[in-house]
Write a sequence for this structure.
């Protein structure tokens, strides 16, 4: 069945960063109200609500779905559900919203992604995120995600060549892009040389990953309003979800080839196929650069370059601002920030801006098609979406 | 749109109790394999998987959806998603499965509910469950669920009369029913007198709730296979989901009347309406007796008795085994056990047995219609389903 009968008709996005005064509830409530205001619909018109949040110990709120109802008394008695797929929880909530609409049970759906991370120490955050690893193998359970992606970078060097300079180029690009994004967590130019040099201000986090290869610990939230084809016509702006595909892989690392990124590849290629477009048709992409090595591997999964040659997408300028297919104009998880459960919704909310001519930050001029790729764990829960501009 | 176009075609159910040797992964894998075997379908035929699990600190596995894929290599690359709505997480997963089928994106869906609780101390379990309360009010966040339902029982006495003897009758009934259920956690006759008397073996847990008013800490899992109307015809057995309704209420207690149970009432009445049946048509009900006072309030939400008179449903024998509308023939959460994220799926799995003439435990002879009610928090996430026998 065609998923292009669901559209995004409004969006909202908080500032990303260390939002000391905001609780998880504040983040959820503010972005819910902002999305309703952006849609210019009454809360009573919303048929169902979905929340993407990872949690895993980041906050004590173990049952957050109904917190969305706190935004407006008219939301009382609406169905509200939390969806979780680690760092792709936001996309899991969007997928659930799409299914609710295509099922015929809802015409207008609010999807929120939110995460409150900075009230924890770095040790606590690392522990919570490690909950997204496989727990039933002592060795794997003991790995942090930076160690895990560090392992992938080391394997990449063994199999092909050192990915470190490409990774530094990715970091420098995404930091530069974030300079224009007022909602990004970091606004600091980071030169390629800085990112490519281990130093006191850029130490190893998990060899060979350096500080600049890692995304951030972030508080933030984003929301979108989804509408059925029929209902979408009544909105001023419309961006169609031409294809959204979810592919889950095995959780244990031991059952997978780390570098193959098979789940991402299948999700992306299948979403492109569903939308009946090729890479040539895309005007921009926002992809899951939780670590710079991940963005490099995603270039290869997209087909921008053969396996082991992702660096060419950088060297040829393809993925740069102004290039043929700019990647992470927002600054990406690397510099925009990565409030894990919010990230998938953030990608869709920012793409809505791009495709309706009101980008937050750098523009992909006259963009018609955008590709979004959000993942949970290391290529375990993979979601790719192709969006098309309809009405600005 | 009619939800009766989704059916249950197979089910599986673990033993409930203290399953010391089983990890969360074991519980999920075993029940997934058992459901596939019961359906007599190859794993490759499953289009999507949904998992209900609450967690909130019970286990370190913060990203469990892909654990379902561990059951069979052919599940690799299928979409798998965790849904959470506290103790109604199992029903949240079922609702997501129904939407996936009605959306046209899936024909055959596997839904698993699982929870591993007993590897924690009582203090840890109480803390994890308290994560389902409202965290942004210090007073509410400090309440355990037994204190909360104790408050409801105290308010009931103030407004109507003491509910304690009705609560004891519910405990005695559910323990008696569980005697016939080989999968139940407790197999022990508990007399009305024992349940209605505070003693060394039946102390106050949270006044006026006694030990026998509280459900159990349980490990367990259940699974069902859902099929589209078209696909269901190819299965030997079929139970139609005639109506499933989800209603969420505000999380903070301060915004609600505890005794009104408005969310449960709306969900149940709306599910009955959707299925075009009345209480008279029902042959059995399984309802969320996390505390005996909850079952009493659910009688009133169902309309079995006016508010404040739920005890009449017991006195008149309506809800007893052999009565007009037996409630919790399985033993209920009270005696069958309550692995929180599994409970909603357990209700549907056992109802599948009842409605295909192979009950696990006590029978509702020649049953055609069953009502299921599962809730998260105190009447916060409310799911009611009406099931109808199609083919045994």
């Amino acid at each position: 069945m065609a998923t292009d009968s669901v559209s995004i008709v409004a969006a909202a996005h908080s500032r990303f960063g260390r939002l000391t005064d905001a609780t998880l509830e504040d983040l959820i409530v503010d972005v819910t109200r902002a999305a309703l205001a952006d849609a210019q619909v009454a809360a009573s018109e919303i048929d169902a609500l979905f929340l993407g949040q990872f949690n895993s110990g980041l906050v004590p709120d173990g049952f957050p779905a109904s917190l969305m109802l706190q935004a407006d008394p008219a939301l009382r008695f609406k169905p509200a559900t939390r969806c979780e797929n680690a760092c792709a929880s936001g996309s899991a909530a969007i997928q659930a919203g799409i299914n609710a609409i295509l099922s015929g049970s809802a015409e207008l759906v609010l999807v929120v992604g939110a995460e409150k991370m900075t009230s924890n120490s770095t040790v606590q955050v690392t522990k919570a995120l490690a909950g997204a690893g496989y727990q039933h193998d002592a060795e794997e359970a003991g790995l942090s995600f930076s160690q895990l992606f560090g392992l992938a970078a080391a394997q990449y060097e063994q199999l092909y060549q050192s990915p470190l300079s490409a990774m530094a180029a990715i970091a420098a690009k995404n930091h530069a892009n974030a300079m224009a994004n007022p909602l990004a967590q970091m606004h600091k130019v980071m030169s390629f040389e800085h990112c490519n040099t281990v130093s006191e201000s850029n130490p190893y986090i998990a060899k060979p990953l350096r500080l600049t290869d890692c995304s951030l610990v972030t508080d933030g939230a984003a929301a979108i309003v989804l509408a059925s084809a029929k209902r979408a016509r009544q909105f001023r702006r419309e961006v169609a979800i031409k294809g959204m595909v979810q592919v889950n892989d095995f959780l244990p690392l031991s059952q997978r080839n780390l570098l193959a990124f098979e789940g991402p590849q299948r999700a992306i290629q299948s979403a492109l196929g569903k939308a009946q477009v090729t890479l040539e048709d895309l005007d921009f992409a926002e992809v899951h650069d939780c670590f710079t090595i991940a963005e490099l591997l995603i270039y290869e999964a997209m087909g921008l370059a053969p396996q082991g040659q992702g660096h060419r997408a950088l060297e040829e300028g393809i993925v740069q601002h102004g290039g043929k297919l700019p990647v992470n104009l927002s600054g990406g998880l690397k510099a925009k920030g990565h409030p894990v459960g919010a990230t998938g919704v953030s990608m869709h909310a920012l793409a809505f801006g791009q495709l309706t001519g009101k980008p937050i930050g750098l523009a992909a001029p006259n963009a018609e098609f955008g590709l979004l790729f959000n993942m949970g764990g290391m290529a375990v829960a993979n979601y790719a979406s192709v969006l098309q501009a309809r009405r600005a």
In short: Chain B has a mean pLDDT of 97. Chain B touches chain A through 62 residues (CB under 8 Å). The CA atoms of residues 107 and 184 of chain B lie 32 Å apart.
